[in-house]
């Protein structure tokens, strides 16, 4: 049962063949992360095509970049690339699109938000002050302002002998899964949301329609669909003297 929950079709609507193609051959959802680079190359065909609107003051790097008709790149945005920006997607002022980013139709990368090796499914949004690294946002996912999808563990220093970092391992229902990834941010299923200043630690998988409340730091692993993840605080209100 656990293995089934970790399959792409358990987190995302894959009825659209173009979306399903991004997960071809993936038995677990995190296997799609190292494939993003290949899919960017496929979608851009290694070239450059600007059919959308790039406003004065935006900057496009020299790598392969496709911006489809109806997409908008606002002043002050910087697209390094390679990147694919789908129809109706918006890259807002001050956004930073690094290497291997796919923004599908109607998605948003907003002000002071950064994406790297990331996949935004249709309607996904990181509108304000977000970091989305080595991560996947499902359909209509919304990240509250200041959400960070951390992709590198604090104890992941490179081995002195091999020069390699340890891979991220998840324990789900008592079963350990070695993802084989040294960088793994978060994967949020369709219609999941985070509140402001939430932090999803490396290796978080959030089920569809689940809500992560503001200021919550979420541990790695699988968090089931249709849930609420929240931080409980003790707040005292005292009279001023």
Annotation field: number of helices:
4
Largest sheet: 15 strands, parallel
Order of helices and strands: HHHHEEEEEEEEEEEEEEEEEEEEEEEEEE
Structural class: mainly beta
Q: Roughly how many Å apart are the termini?
A: 58 Å
**Could you report the average pLDDT, rounded to the nearest whole number?**
96
Q: Which fold does the CATH topology refer to? A: UDP N-Acetylglucosamine Acyltransferase, domain 1
β-strand amount: 25-35%
Classified in CATH, the superfamily is: Hexapeptide repeat proteins
Q: Any idea what the radius of gyration is?
A: 18 Å
Counting DSSP E segments of at least 2 residues, the number of strands comes to 26
What is the share of helical residues? Answer: under 10%
Shape: globular
CATH class: Mainly Beta
Low-confidence stretches: none
Structural domain count:
1
List the helices and strands and how they pair.
Elements: H1 2-5, H2 8-11, H3 17-20, H4 36-44, E1 48-50, E2 53-54, E3 59-60, E4 65-67, E5 72-73, E6 78-79, E7 83-85, E8 90-91, E9 96-97, E10 101-103, E11 108-111, E12 114-120, E13 125-128, E14 131-137, E15 142-143, E16 148-149, E17 169-172, E18 175-178, E19 186-188, E20 193-194, E21 199-200, E22 204-206, E23 211-212, E24 217-218, E25 221-223, E26 228-229
Parallel strand pairs: 1-4, 2-5, 3-6, 4-7, 5-8, 6-9, 7-10, 8-11, 9-12, 10-12, 11-13, 12-14, 14-16, 14-19, 15-20, 16-21, 19-22, 20-23, 21-24, 22-25, 23-26
Antiparallel strand pairs: 17-18
Keywords: Acyltransferase, Transferase
InterPro entries: GlmU-like, Trimer_LpxA-like_sf
GO molecular function: acyltransferase activity; nucleotidyltransferase activity
């Amino acid at each position: 049962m656990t293995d089934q929950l970790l399959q792409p079709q358990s987190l995302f609507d894959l009825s659209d063949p173009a979306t399903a193609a991004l997960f071809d051959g993936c038995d677990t959802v995190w296997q799609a992360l190292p494939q993003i680079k290949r899919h960017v190359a496929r979608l851009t065909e290694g070239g450059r095509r600007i059919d959308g609107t790039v406003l004065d003051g935006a900057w496009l790097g020299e790598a392969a970049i496709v911006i489809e008709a109806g997409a908008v790149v606002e002043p002050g945005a910087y697209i390094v690339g390679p990147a694919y920006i789908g129809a109706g997607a918006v890259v807002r002022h001050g956004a930073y699109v690094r290497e291997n980013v796919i923004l599908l139709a109607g998605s948003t990368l907003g002000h002071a938000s950064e994406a790297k090796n990331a996949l935004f499914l249709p309607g996904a949004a990181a509108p304000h002050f977000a970091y989305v690294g080595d991560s996947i946002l499902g359909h209509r996912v919304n990240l509250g302002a200041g959400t960070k999808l951390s992709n590198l563990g604090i104890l992941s220093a490179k081995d002195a002998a091999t020069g390699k970092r340890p891979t991220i391992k998840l324990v789900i229902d008592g079963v350990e899964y070695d993802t084989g990834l040294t960088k793994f941010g978060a994967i949020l299923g369709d219609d999941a949301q985070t509140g402001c200043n939430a932090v999803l630690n490396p290796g978080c998988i959030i089920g569809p329609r689940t809500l992560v409340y503001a200021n919550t730091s979420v541990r790695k692993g699988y968090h089931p669909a249709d849930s609420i993840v929240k931080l409980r605080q003790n707040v005292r209100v005292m009279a001023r003297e």
